[in-house]
Amino acid sequence: MRLEGRTTPVPCQAAMKRLTEIGVPALSILENAEESNDLELRLRASALVKSIREANRPSVRVNGMEFTLETDFKWRRPSEVHVTRFNLTVRAKNISDTIYRFGLTKVSIVLTDSTGQSPKALPIWLRGTLLPPIHPAMAKNDALAFSLDASLVKENDNVMLHWNDPLSFSQFGPLADKTYSVALAFESSLPTQNADGSGIRMPEFSDSTYWLGKVQTPSERIQIR
């Protein structure tokens, strides 16, 4: 079964089912097919890649919550358009019997290349004492998504990774056209109150308790190209 282009038939339903059954080992073939000149082949290959990655996405459990990372495999390098955006989301699922809310949440990117090296992290600009979003209560099996406002930005001849969370703006770079591993570090905490009672004060709820902790999601492989 080949997936190279228009000279061969677009994979039939049986072939697509077989590729889905093969799972992760089929991803490299399907990711190449996503670059085909054949529109129907590209669409089918992309749908299979998304399905396989979602079905095999690893998770980590901390303090009664399960966390996964969702992102696009290809992060497009900016060209004439100076900014390209992509999906980068932490999904949290309550697997405990405790009803939780998230407190002061911070999400940051952990990016490494094949040698384990990380691009230079440039200074972080804090946004000050903004009141964080009030997240809904989560009963057992409820889930919540935290999407990072992330993009690749062309600055002169360099490509930089910019992202925002409710508390800060940060950036990595410059980035090369190659494969990286990406994870998200997630933290939920309560702000420290000053002695005079000033500072951010989180609301109190009778129906739930704040989930507090730090976690790093399992890594996903991405390509910048």
Q: How would you describe this structure to a colleague?
A:
The chain contains 3 helices and 16 strands. It is of the alpha+beta class. It folds into 2 domains: 1-56, no CATH class; 58-224, Coagulation Factor XIII, Chain A, domain 1 (Distorted Sandwich), CATH 2.70.50. Strands 3, 7, 13, 15 and 16 form a 5-stranded mixed beta sheet that branches. A 5-stranded antiparallel beta sheet has the order 4-10-11-12-8, with no helix packed on it. A 4-stranded antiparallel beta sheet has the order 1-2-5-9, with no helix packed on it. The two termini are 27 Å apart.
How does the SSE layout of this entry go?
Elements: H1 13-22, H2 27-33, H3 39-55, E1 59-62, E2 65-71, E3 74-75, E4 83-85, E5 88-94, E6 100-102, E7 104-113, E8 121-126, E9 143-147, E10 149-155, E11 158-164, E12 168-172, E13 179-189, E14 209-211, E15 213-216, E16 220-224
Parallel strand pairs: 3-16, 6-14
Antiparallel strand pairs: 1-2, 2-5, 4-10, 5-9, 7-13, 8-12, 10-11, 11-12, 13-15, 13-16
Helix pairs in contact: 2-3
